[in-house]
Amino acid sequence: SQSTALSHLNIVVTAGPTQEELDPVRYITNHSSGKMGFAIAKAAVSLGAKVTLISGPVNLETPYNVNRHNVRTAIDMHQAALEYAQHADIFIACAAVADYRAKVVADQKMKKHDDSNELVLTLVKNPDIVADVANMQHNRPFVVGFAAETHNVEAYALKKLTTKHLDMICANDVSSKQQGFNTDDNALTLYWKSGKLPLPLTNKNQLGLQLVTEIIKHYNEYTNE
Ligand code: C5P
């Protein structure tokens, strides 16, 4: 059966946003709901894989049989991802990781100043989690990334596929309100070095199944090379 065929596979999925602290009461984040990543984790379990879900702060229940590891910041997610990736066959980076974090996190609540209408925050780049996993020198898993874009979706997706050394990338057009962030439906186009496959608009659970099925097909080709 399918479940025995996949029971040897270890799949790690990152999901949700990250929260980048500014001070004890404030943070920077984004609109990611985590729904796509959770749907992928659920689909992978239903196909018989062992799944670890590294999740940022989201309001979602852990899918049945999924090993969930919660994180807040990109730095925490990076550390967890590199650890779990050591034992992963497939790594799927669905999280909307904050590109930047505050250079200095204030240890006390920042006060409003009376003498200026401006506040300048200095941000520094976060590590690129999926790129670091794709560059692992030992036990590198098959690596799948996402590209959420509002324009030039295909061009940016292909650029990320190459520069991050990914095996596949799922392009997500987030310019439309019917799909992407915080919705139950999504459409994706999957790209790899030598081809692409559009997965039309459907609910995220259905899409998760189609996506994981396709990823496993490519993973099998890659390990048989
Ligand atoms: O942010 P960007 O559009 O480059 O994200 C593309 C892919 O890279 C996604 O799969 C996302 O999860 C991953 N990413 C990451 N770590 C970051 C930024 C993005 O793993 N710091």
From TrEMBL:
Residues 11-225 are annotated as: Phosphopantothenate--cysteine ligase. Pathway: Cofactor biosynthesis; coenzyme A biosynthesis; CoA from (R)-pantothenate: step 3/5; Cofactor biosynthesis; coenzyme A biosynthesis; CoA from (R)-pantothenate: step 2/5. Its cofactor is Mg(2+); FMN. It catalyses: N-[(R)-4-phosphopantothenoyl]-L-cysteine + H(+) = (R)-4'-phosphopantetheine + CO2; (R)-4'-phosphopantothenate + L-cysteine + CTP = N-[(R)-4-phosphopantothenoyl]-L-cysteine + CMP + diphosphate + H(+). CTP binds at D99, K109, P127, D128, I129, V130, F146, K160, K164. Its EC number is 4.1.1.36, 6.3.2.5. GO terms for molecular function: ligase activity. Residues 7-217 form the DNA/pantothenate metabolism flavoprotein C-terminal domain. Keywords: Decarboxylase, Flavoprotein, FMN, Ligase, Lyase, Magnesium, Metal-binding, Multifunctional enzyme. Binds 1 FMN per subunit. Catalyzes two steps in the biosynthesis of coenzyme A. In the first step cysteine is conjugated to 4'-phosphopantothenate to form 4-phosphopantothenoylcysteine, in the latter compound is decarboxylated to form 4'-phosphopantotheine. In the N-terminal section; belongs to the HFCD (homo-oligomeric flavin containing Cys decarboxylase) superfamily. In the C-terminal section; belongs to the PPC synthetase family. This is Coenzyme A biosynthesis bifunctional protein CoaBC. It comes from Orbus sasakiae.
